[in-house]
Design brief:
single chain, 202 residues, alpha/beta, 2-enoyl-CoA Hydratase, Chain A, domain 1, 6-stranded mixed beta sheet, 4-stranded mixed beta sheet, 42% helix
Length: 202
Amino acid sequence: MIDLKQEGDLWIVTLARPDKANSLTRPMLERLVEIAESAGATRALILTGQGKVFSAGADLEEAKAGLAVSDLWERLSGALARLPALKIAALNGTLAGGANGMALACDIRIAVPGAKIFYPVMKLGYLPQPSDPARMIALIGPARAKLILMGGQKITVEEAYDYGLIDRIVPPEDLMATARALCADTLAAPAEVAAGIARMCS
């Protein structure tokens, strides 16, 4: 349910459980962590999903059984954030719950029209992943982070773009081509130059 396609120095990771809104099970999370922790030599990584939802977050039954508070979420976002590669979240639809962590850990977020972003942890009785509020605040400020995390608001992709949470809105048919185009200069540059710029922008 996690598809990894390696095209030389470009890795494309796809959440492939569209019949369940790409909700994440423990094995899926473990596989994502494994990929992120083994991608150190990768120059660019695109994270996307199948179907019309990027991810609904944790699988509901597994969340109730403890997955919602697993350290796997933080391991995943931390591993992605540490990668010197250019990381692009190509959001093919709505981004919800714990799946926000992996998108926030990416360098660039692009999304299709009609997508929504929400993170209803407080309503469900959980804390967010430890690093997620800080990453969200760095992008959109504390008030708007509280709007999402404490106000429970579903943010439209247009609002997310205005806030700075989404960097570009792209028609669905152009989503992956746009993501690949954003990776092109990094893949073509000398590795040490691209890595150096990544460090300077961190």
